[in-house]
Amino acid sequence: MLNWDDVLAAAPTLVTRESDGELVVVLPEQGKFVVLNATGARVLHLSDGTRTLREIADTLSAEFDADQTQVEGDVLRFAQALVERGALHVR
Amino acid sequence: MNVANPRAANPRAANPRAANPRAITFDLGIAGTALQTRGPEAWLAPLCNAWAAWHPAPGTTPWDVHLTADASLPAPQAPLFAALPRVQGGVCTLTATGFEGEVSAVKGAAHLRAHPQAEPADIGYFLRVVLAVQAFARGGMLFHTAGIVHGGQGYAFFGVSGSGKTTAAHFSAPDPVLNDDLVLLWPAADGWAMYATPFGRRRGEARVAPLRALLRLVKDQGVFLAPMPVSRALGELVANTPVLSAGTLWLPEVLARWEALLSAVPVYALHFRRDATFWEVIDAELG
What we know:
The complex is a heterodimer. By secondary structure, chain A is α+β, with helices and mostly antiparallel strands. Helices cover 42% and strands 31% of the residues of chain A. In chain A, helix 2 crosses helix 3. Chain B folds into 2 domains: 6-138, no CATH class; 142-286, Phosphoenolpyruvate Carboxykinase, domain 3 (Alpha-Beta Complex), CATH 3.90.228.20. Chain B is 23% helix and 32% strand. In chain B, a hairpin with a 2-residue loop joins strand 9 (146-150) and strand 10 (153-158). The longest helix of chain B is centred in the middle third of the chain and has 18 residues, at 120-137. The radius of gyration of chain B is 20 Å and the shape is elongated. The chains are: A alpha+beta, B alpha+beta. Chains A and B meet through strand 2, strand 3 and strand 4 of A and helix 4 and helix 5 of B.
């Protein structure tokens, strides 16, 4: 389970390509892929190894001018899913 | 006999154990690919017989493939097919107990050292990997799919293992099946062409067809075609592109090539059940 103070980083081997308004993320070591919407893609991009999960949620909340609680829920869900698929690592 | 390793009892592997096994050369080619393989006769003769009709097109420059029997390696414990290709620095390696293979896209050459107990099927798999790398380097792609020719057009049925590729091929009789598992996609003047390969089961003598559509198989009670988002299709198609998706080096180009193909060839989710009615739906929409 992720904590808000966790610092996240994208897996070094993943390969991405924007297509059709979504982000295709391929995980070559697992032979798998995930397709992310704009929010998921932004979570991935902000996970640069320097930001905590809370900082990512704060950034998204400001960018989308959205309800903080709603954004936190979305970010946590996306981040958890990406960690489970191996696209994000906890530092 | 080594009962722990049944592969040791294979009589076909006897010749490469000799100090100087007789070497022969075998040429293999599909579309714009060409491999010239030299190695022990005991490994290559069965492939020469099985794939005799798959000659390179005249004028196609081959990659040199060298096979070496090396008794200093440990005896194989499993088919080479079980090994996963790794891609790094322009080189694809295929390594397992008893096997050390390397394919260099930069040099345009490949080499496999294998224990003498390796079997022709192992060599065939290595050549398949080499062909995948060469095809990609020359603008094509191997693709895990059932390639079926219907009304002179090629239809590629793809999906995860167990999605129904073999079933689709079965219920398409007597239409030709280029291959029920692996085809070669190659750019053509007006789109893409789908070529047969010798790496799986086939039906009929057809060798190539213009690629009309990509169909992602979905087992269902109803039969219908549904639009498939390009992003989702891209992910699935890359996952069904053997060898090339094994490392980060070639993946961006693989994604770009699939995206280019999808701009020329439509992709659908084909919901189907275990009968031939899916062709009625395909004919109505795409025929």
